[in-house]
Amino acid sequence: MIRECYRDSFVLTRANVKTDFIPIVSSVTNLFAIFAKAILFCKTSIPKEKHYYSSYLKEKHFGLCLLLLIPIVGNILFCALNLLASKKVRSLTLEKKNIPSLQTWAKLGNADAMNLLGRCYGKEQGQQNKATYWYLQAAVRGHANAMNCLAVCYENGRGVGKDLQKAIALYRQAVKGGNSIAMNNLAICYEKGTGVERDLKQAAALYRQAATLGDPDGLYNLGKCYEYGYGVEKNVEEAVKLYRQAADLGLPRAMNRLALCYDEGRGVGKNIQKAIALYRQAVNAGNHSAMYNLGICYEQGDGVDKDRKGAVELYHQAATLGLPIAMNRLALIYEEGRGVEKDIQKAITLYRQAVKGGNSIAMNNLAICYEKGTGVEIDLKQAAALYRQAATLGDPDGLYNSGNCYEHGVGVEQDLIKAAQLYQKAADKGHPKAKKALEKVQLKLNRNGWEDLSDQRDLA
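The structure assignment produced for this chain is given below.
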């Protein structure tokens, strides 16, 4: 089963609206202070450095005080209008037809409109510069979600030059503003060491912060930390609880992960029927990993009636959504004609797509096709290159097969030392044939006077 570990780095939500009330509260407070001092003759103290009308109040210049009420009342009315505008803006969808309305509100200074306008332009081809402009306008007005959006642009070089340090700084500002998406994004930077020194504990802390706010991605990512012991003590049972919470909030990949736990009995009692139900729920929500996993169940008859046709349909759906492992599985089915008409050319096409997606199993399978001339002309150099590509990813079969190429000089110049090193790595990863192959190569090396591989430079 596939391990799903990815993020949608451009999922956006609106900012925390509590901050919208701050200008009104401030203005009302000022208004009350003036009213109390100038009209009721109270002894309300007003610091000079904070209120420019302090001296007038102390001298009881009532006329001037009343004049000074005008900008404060105006500020209250403007803020109230801005709140109404934000309510209207947030009801708009991210469609091109709404851009004129959003532009109107944005030009009036509404930060929500600026942020949404940025998102609309971000969806349009060739409009990234406009998107980043409006994100910046909203960000300087304290819009936490716009800060997160702008950080994503800097992290990926969308509409601006790629600048990881600016991205990190903006993520941190957005986190201070309470944006849970930024918490997840900054956590991923710490998890991968993107723009910062890798720190799994800090990543887990940020995921926890997002999870505390009820963010489904935060719950899922924190669950992943507990499942694999990333920055926290490994606790699969706690991971299951967090996956369940995220799934209950409608996160498709959490449904798939929870299904995997029930499927394999990890952190919870094995229950294939619950797994099937969750896989189906995630499939209906469009999760490609769940499509692949449910396809495996249909193909093997695990928890459901065996249905190869249904499995192929699910693999097709997952492959169409870009899942490399589903492309490889589908290619194997077409190569062998299992439940479908045998089609070698379609298999080769799918293998190549899966290889581009970084799937090491497909690299081995396509290499075998080049080695044997299945659907393509025999090309031993290309086969060796694909085995080597899989080996670079740490794939046990890739390590073993690449070792075999070096042992026998298939597509590469014969190199017994390198062959032995690759076999050793494959054996360390539990490849069933690697240990015997290593012993065989060791005997050949001993005959040539090479007795201790640990003295040799690692060329792999």
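Interim note for the steering committee: The CA atoms of residues 420 and 441 lie 6 Å apart. DSSP finds 23 helices and no strands in the chain.
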